Amino acid sequence: MRILLFLVFMGTFVISNAQVQTHLVTLTGDSVLYSNSKFKFVEFIDARKDTTKLGLLKENYNSKDHQLINFPSEITSYLPSFIDSVVDYSSSAEEVSVVIKSLNLNEEPLGAIEIAKSNIELNFYLIKKHKYKLIKKVNKSTEKPNADATKTLSSEIESLIRNAFHDFLTQPSAEGENNQW
To answer: What pTM was computed for the model?
Structure first.
């Protein structure tokens, strides 16, 4: 009887741990976002609630039929590499830490079409003498319907990331000016 229970338990465990497929999204970095930046992004901290994936790709309403969405490598190495490829730094650029509070990308069915939903929330901290000072928060979201949204997921997340960093680099902020070092 114990052996039978063990076999049933193991069979259930193996079936429940079946590998979920992953849909990889890539960032191209084919054009410069910003030149002569006065800020250099030297540290990326992943503070998302779920650091295992960017989101889910659902082709239909069946909750069992989905794929994980992710970058080809860890976000704390992949994102800095992309940003360094699209931002040219000034020789006197100040060091900035980027805290990734949220970065999500989901595809869901919407009747006869699909919708890609993305969200990014970043906190930017100026680093001086090993002390951090919040200088700006950026939060952006998009929802885009498409006949086949799966084909556009990479461009959607890249556009969202570019817009968030562009906002930080081009729009002055007084959010953190009175914060103590």
So the answer is: 0.82
Q: How many CA atoms lie within 13 A of 84 on its CB side?
A: 10
Task: Annotate the chain with DSSP letters as a single string.
Answer: -HHHHHHHHHHHHHHHTPPPPEEE------S-SEEEEEEEEEEEEE--S-TT-SEEEESSS-TTSEEEEE-SS-HHHHHHHHHHHHEEEEEEEEEEEEEEEEEEEEEEEETTEEEEEEEEEEEEEEEETTEEEEEEEEEEEEEEEETTGGGGHHHHHHHHHHHHHHHHHHS---TTTT---
pLDDT digits (tens, 9 = 90+) for 84-116: 999 999 999 999 999 999 999 998 888 878 899
Q: Is the pLDDT of residue 10 over 50?
A: no
Token pair belonging to 106: 């989901």
